[in-house]
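As a warm-up, study this chain.
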Amino acid sequence: MQLRTNNLKFTIKNTILYTLLSFCISTQLYAQDIIEDEVKDTIVANDTLKVAIDSIRTVTAPVKPFERTKIDGVAAVIGENVILDSDIDIAYQQLISEGVSASDVSRCELAGSLFENKLYAHHAIQDSIEVRDAEVNSMVDQQLAYMTNELGTLEKVLRFYKKDNVDDFKKELFEINKSNRLSEQMRTKIISDIEITPEEIREFFDDIPEEDRPLFGTEIELAQIVIEPEIPQEEEQKVIDRLNQFREDIVEKGSSFATKAVLYSQDPGSKSTGGKYTLDRQTNFAKEFKDVAFSLQEGEVSEPFKTDFGWHIVKVDKIRGEEIDVRHILLVPEVTRKSIDEAKKLIDSVRTILVSGSIEFKEAARKFSDEKETREDGGQLINPTTGDTHFELTKIDPILYDQVSKLKTNEVSLIIPDQDRQGRKKFKLITVLNRYDEHIADYSKDYLKIQELALRKKQIDAIRKWQNEKITDTYIKINGEYRDCEYSGNWLKKEK
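Now compare it with the structure written out below.
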């Protein structure tokens, strides 16, 4: 959604940079998503990062290019948390790796965001909010695997971050990730009980001058039919036999499980670390995976078993109460050319009867689609950002945009080749169920969007009030160049 003026920009002030930092440091992990978390974007923002950054400046000082300072200097102390210059360096490097220009974010802005993060984390501990070590260790393992995959080798990762050894680096990543998770949970707690009444929503909307009301872009509702080539039983058996051979080599001949994982596993999230994950019963892994892992004794290797991702064998390295360290090898059965041709022929036939009008799209989805997440809803897609069925046309994935932007309502797309999570080919058809043209916000037509904006503003006001109170009550010491910054929060505790 584009905003015509700055009247609504306070609804996202000071949140996007924090989200970028948390996302870059903690959650952008190219790993095997054993169970995919829904992407939830609680921020309503403009289309470009530059506009977003402009709307959330945490300092009023001019943006200056990043300059390296002494690595081991203490930038600040927030409660019991120490922020080093090197913490700000790491945050900067992560932002740059995500494509953020060095001229867009100053060192003061990074510092201010980290101060907020540590303030939330400090009070999360005071409020007895807990973060499971298994969750954090799993994040660290996956994050390190992602870095290694991106840079090529673990040695290059250590050089890039100027670390002497992997153990120290993992400890540092653990503390960063744990602090971020505590911070996130504290923020969630602050706003968890906040609700908004219809009167408040109306007041929020009426306070926006008519000429300044937001412009909602063109939105569409989509449905799709997905046809996946069938995996022949003989291909499944090949994978099972190979995993059984690996297991025999490991159990009977003493081969290294980790080495085989590095050489043969098809899980990009753990391959480089020898298939290692740390998990407990609450970790977001496939139920079948956890059931097998928690049934094993320390040092035991499982028989081959299947999840939605393929076939696995698992070894338990260490049991620590409710937490375990495991290694696994994932192999994915191949689909044959014959299976691909048969799937292509089927989706051709489905499109033919759809175009002829012999069957409605939703009925065809329920009858033919292999995508179980959408099949029962007639193939209708849910927007993971908003949780509803509307997709703003200018904000959808560019590839999807090319596929649907020119479709008329109820028109069926051409056959679209696609890939599953393992890179295997599949085919899909897409249709536009409804189209809603670009328009100025209307209270009755856009009530849910206006409600979201009003609630978000109320939440941010609550967070800002909480932060101002806690800054006053918390031991805070800001050092060196960071005393020269001008922050939105009173971090220097100057008398007003």
